[in-house]
Amino acid sequence: MAAIDPTRGFLKDVKRIVIKVGTAVVTREDGRLALGRLGALCEQIQILNSEGFEVILVSSGAVGAGRQRLRYRKLVHSSFADLQKPQVELDGKACAAVGQNGLMALYDTLFSQLDVTSAQLLVTDNDFRNPEFRKQLTETVDSLLSYKVIPVFNENDAVSTRRAPYEDSSGIFWDNDSLAALLALELKADLLVLLSDVDGLYSGPPSDPQSKLIHTYVKEKLENTITFGDKSRLGRGGMTAKVKAAVYASQAGIPVVITSGFAGDNIVKVLQGQRIGTLFHEDAHTWVSNGELNARDMAGAARESSRRLQAMPVKGRSKILLDIADALEANEKISSLAKAIRVLANMEEPIGQVLKRTELSDGLILDKTSSPLGVLLVIFESRPEALVQIASLAIRTGNGLLLKGGKEARRSNAILHKIITSAIPESVGEGLIGLVTSRDEIPELLKLDDVIDLVIPRGSNKLVSQIKSSTKIPVLGHADGICHVFVDKSADMEMAKNIVLDAKTDYPAACNAMETLLVHKDLMENGGVNELLIELQTKGVSINGGPRASSMLNLPAAPSFHHEYSSMTCTIEIVDDVHAAIDHIHKHGSAHTDCIVTQDREIADIFLRQVDSAAVFHNASTRFSDGFRFGLGAEVGISTSRIHARGPVGVEGLLTTRWIARGSGQVVDNDKGVVYTHRDITHQA
Predict the structure, then answer these.
(1) GO terms for CC (predicted)?
(2) Is the pTM of this model over 0.85?
(3) How does pLDDT run across 225-240, given as a tens digit for each residue?
(4) C-alpha closest to that of 26 among 191, 195, 268, 264
(5) Which partner from 13, 115, 344, 345 sits 20 to 30 angstroms from 274, CA to CA?
């Protein structure tokens, strides 16, 4: 199901609809009428009719259908000699007369099968010049609709005075798209739906892989930027005609949706408010200023701004961060974050650092350098301080950024975003950091693998899993935070109690909080387990047991070893030794953060070497797994991925590498003229 578009809430008040179906939808490639598509159209109209909507149909297709019939008649009555002569184009008006009869007969048959009555109304351009005609037209249509009859309009091409072959665009209307727009105004419709052979209006020809569907048309932004494809294969217009008609109607106050007539339920979906096709609305330009639209434009602006940011002098980028810190303090917003931003601003410049320098041959030097990733999409939890941390890291690393925060902090996020972007100089552009305000924009953003380079979700297991399964863009993050503390038999029990308590109770909802406590079996005999249980329960922690622990300690059974409580609850299990603890962590953990408490250095080293998690600690709380505590300045999240960054992701995790070669005229020439030295000169002055 397509996402519900919040900008289409007005559709709930729609009563009268004009639907225009084009020749490319009504007819097949061979010119015959497309019975399946017409049947699906009539079924949708029947549904709307039964639900109380007033539906007016404008149908093309008569000329195309008539042309196919007359070609067959001409072929049947032609001699062999006639067929050898150059074939003259069939008279369009004759085609219209023949085709209209068959088209209307088919509509009548299809509607009759659905217990719906239809009526044919043929009009010409000249008719609308007569005020009496227009008045009578409205009265007739109102009367038909009161009887739940479906008026079916078409231009009366057979007797129209418009010049053949329909290239005359003068007059009150000039094709069935403009006729539909005119009727929508004359008959005071609430919505106009233009059915096409494509999903809507694209940024370029739909056949071009780079073209993207435009969900909302903003005339001021798109009028001179869209490249239209070919006109309709059979009709007069194509997308250019539809857009002209849609702009005309929408500016007069009639919302318009252009969508595909090939799908059997698109009209119904449009009226449900789903993000189907392209919407034209007189207020669309105001939605853009509120940040509700055009995910691609937002991502493109972030990329262009990031390139300008990277081109700035080092001191210029640092100054932006210092200005943001000053602005936050001036607005009395989280002074501790302002201090963290100043730490970032005073860090060594991360962009363009030479990580390795190699002499490939005499006079040919190759540098491996640090470089920004590009454009980041970060979807984060409700805490508003996350926005400041993430934005600061993006600026420090020269990346463009798109942010989507939790709805609970929407107002705070908007204020913080405004404070931060106001400190970004015009030479870079506020588009460097875009704030996505609608959750429905996320599916569109996740499709933009050509302009967004990395997605970082910070939220629930469900959110992270959904994003990973919904995009081709690389995703950096963790789906679970199943962190373990293993208390070995040689542990200092006072130290163990302090670490276990801190890991569980310091911030139980954090992804680095302990969820499972593993205890060496010998601690059952010397009372160590009871000490740990009493300490936890005294602090209000509820304890569930694994199979061994629940049996031996009479504890409630844990729902699963792979369960993230994110609350004052944990699981305890008894294990035989460090190897059993490691096996348990590998089987049930999430490769986030795991800790051993022991005085035996040899056992500690086994744990530290063999546990395959992003962070592994000895005698320290799992809560230290954090970008700020690691001295990274801030973090965008914690990654359990094994590609690129792992663990708390700070500045380094938002960088990639590129190769810079400096030569003096060298050429490969099949390697005949090159003497390779491949000498590491990284540390040479």
Answers:
(1) cytoplasm
(2) no
(3) 565 544 443 334 478 8
(4) 195
(5) 115
Residue 646 · residue 614 · CB < 8 Å: yes
Q: Which of 136, 196, 195, 127 is nearest to 162 (CA)?
A: 127
Torsions phi, psi of 365, nearest 5?
Answer: -110, 135
Looking only at the bridges linking them, the beta strands covering 615-618 and 593-597 are parallel
Residue matched to tokens 């006639």 = 82
Residues 6 or more apart whose Cβ sits within 8 Å of residue 441: 292, 295, 404
- Residue 536: Cβ within 10 Å count: 23
Residue 628 and residue 343: Cα distance in Å, rounded?
A: 10
Compute the distance between CA of residue 622 and CA of residue 134 in angstroms, rounded to an integer: 78
Closest by CA to 403, choosing from 369, 368, 430, 371, is: 430
How many whole angstroms separate alpha carbon 25 and alpha carbon 485? 64
Contact 406, 381 (CB under 8 A): yes
User: d(Cα 493, Cα 496) in Å, to the nearest integer?
Assistant: 5
Tracing tokens 């494509």 back to the chain, one arrives at 198
Q: To the nearest 10°, the Cα dihedral for 298, 300, 302, 308?
A: -150
In angstroms, rounded to a whole number, what is the distance separating the alpha carbons of residues 64 and 98?
Answer: 10
Over pLDDT 70: what percentage of the chain? 88
Mean pLDDT of the residues in the chain:
87
Residues 6+ apart with CB under 8 A from 251: 219, 282
The residues pairing with 483 across neighbouring beta strands, listed in sequence order, are: 514
Query: Could you read off the pLDDT of 598-623 as tens digits, one per residue?
Result: 999 999 999 999 999 999 999 999 99
Mark residue 313 as left, alpha or beta (left: phi above 0; alpha: psi -120 to 50; beta: remaining). Answer: beta
Phi, psi of 431 (to 5 degrees): -65, -10
Neighbour-count burial of 63, counting CB atoms closer than 10 A to its CB (0-12 exposed, 13-18 middle, 19+ buried):
buried
Question: In angstroms, rounded to a whole number, what is the distance separating the alpha carbons of residues 518 and 486?
Answer: 5
Question: What is d(CA 193, CA 92) in angstroms, rounded to the nearest whole number?
Answer: 27
Asked whether 103 and 26 are in contact (CB, 8 A), the reply is: yes
* Least confident residue range of 15-19, 83-87, 310-314, 615-619: 83-87
For helices 92-113 and 35-50, the axis angle rounded to 10 degrees is 50
Strand partners, 594: 484, 616
C-alpha separations of 205 from 244, 576, 584 in Å: 17, 66, 55
Residue type, 573: E
pLDDT in tens, 440-465: 778 889 999 999 999 998 877 778 88
Q: Is 403 helix (H, G, I), strand (E, B) or coil?
A: strand
> For residues 483 and 514, is the Cβ–Cβ distance under 8 A?
yes
Pick the closest to residue 395 from 336, 454, 318 (CA basis). Answer: 318
CA distances from 585 to 549, 579, 599, 646 (A): 16, 10, 20, 18
In whole angstroms, give the CA distance from residue 20 to residue 57: 6
Structure tokens at 21: 């179906």
Which residue do the tokens 């063999």 mark?
610
- pLDDT over 80 (residue 172): no
Beta carbons within 10 angstroms of residue 424's beta carbon: 20
Residue pair 59/26 in contact (Cβ under 8 Å)? The answer is yes
